Amino acid sequence: MSVTKLGWVDSLPQELKSNIITLIKQDTSNVSVLDSLYTYLTEEFENKKRKISPKADSEPTSSIKMLSDYSIQVNRKILEEETIFELPQISFQSPLRKKMNLLLHLLPENGANPILSIVNPTTSEPELSYIQLDKAIKLCVLLPILGMSTVESKKNIGSLCFWLSDEAIPDPTKTDPIVCQINLDLVKKHLVKTGKIPATAESQMLEPTQLEGIKPINEAIIQFLTRQFKLCGINLINYLPSCDINRNKLRMSKDTGVVISHRANNVNDMLLIEAYKGSKDGSLIMVNQNEFNPSYIGFGFKKPIMLFSLNDVVSFSFS
């Protein structure tokens, strides 16, 4: 057998090809040995390739499953390096009733688009996740809680609420918003622990000019949250009373009702009062239009659930 009959030699790198030709010229009996070696290695490689290659009819696995236009199911843990911002161990009232982590994060499968997830703190896996947040979140507000805004030790606690667009709701029979209770004093401790703010930040704050408002450090934290949310496509509107006399002024502060003026003038931008439906007590909220949202009215038992654009309300009646 001559070199010319070993077609595979031509596919070798030039240096190796020259060495093979030299070896054969020295002893032509090497031809059959080299050819047998080539055949063996080729078959062995193909066998291994078949073993590790996925079956032709198998689907590539993905950690994301689309549930609606803006809602997804994530089937894996969220890694620390994928996290943009986290509020750990906060109490959710809707749609879940337990302590969970609220997470803004990324996933390689979703590109550079931020995701909002409610994450189980035990498994680090999301139970609810939303994408295209500028479209998925219809309204995002931070509200005072009736009965707490008048108590010094509790006025730095608020309700963080996200109402979803119809396209972000997988099941049209389950339209409850995301409602969680946020303790700004605990958020401050988390931000200090994670190095996002210095431990001395509170002592560096100016004295409040409106004593009925939240702590200056907590107002700075809300501004930080607002920027984080904005970068991810969510416009957070804060209605907690300010420590600054020039904004978010309390126009009324009672256990049964809270009224806030954004610009500290005579315009009421948020009204939250006790309300009843039959024998059930609840709360009624009205928010004025702003640069991001139209006017809304909401109602719910213990927490605001139902939400209507004020333009869709035909009439009001009082008795």
Describe how the helices and strands are arranged.
Blueprint: H1 14-26, H2 30-52, E1 64-66, E2 71-74, E3 83-94, E4 99-105, E5 115-119, E6 126-130, H3 133-136, E7 137-144, E8 157-164, E9 178-183, H4 184-193, H5 216-231, E10 236-238, E11 249-254, E12 257-261, E13 270-277, E14 280-287, E15 296-300, E16 306-309
Parallel strand pairs: 7-10
Antiparallel strand pairs: 1-2, 2-6, 3-4, 3-9, 4-5, 5-6, 7-8, 8-9, 11-12, 12-13, 13-14, 14-15, 15-16
Q: What structural class do helix, strand and pairing data support?
A: alpha+beta
Number of domains: 2
| Low-confidence parts | 52-60
Largest sheet: 10 strands, mixed
Main CATH class of the largest domain: Mainly Beta
* Oligomer status: single chain
Please tell me the CATH architecture of the largest domain by its name.
Roll
Number of helices: 5
Calculate Rg over CA atoms. Answer: 31 Å
Helix content: 10-25%
Our measurement of the CA-to-CA distance between the termini, rounded to an integer number of angstroms, reads 108 Å
Average pLDDT for all residues: 86
| Strand arrangement in the largest pleated sheet | 1-2-6-5-4-3-9-8-7-10
What fold name stands as the CATH topology of the largest domain? PH-domain like
In percent, how much strand structure appears in the residues?
A: 25-35%
Total DSSP E strands: 16
Domain Rtt106 pleckstrin homology: 78-239
InterPro entries: PH-like_dom_sf, Rtt106_PH
Organism: Candida tenuis (strain ATCC 10573 / BCRC 21748 / CBS 615 / JCM 9827 / NBRC 10315 / NRRL Y-1498 / VKM Y-70)
Protein name: Rtt106 pleckstrin homology domain-containing protein
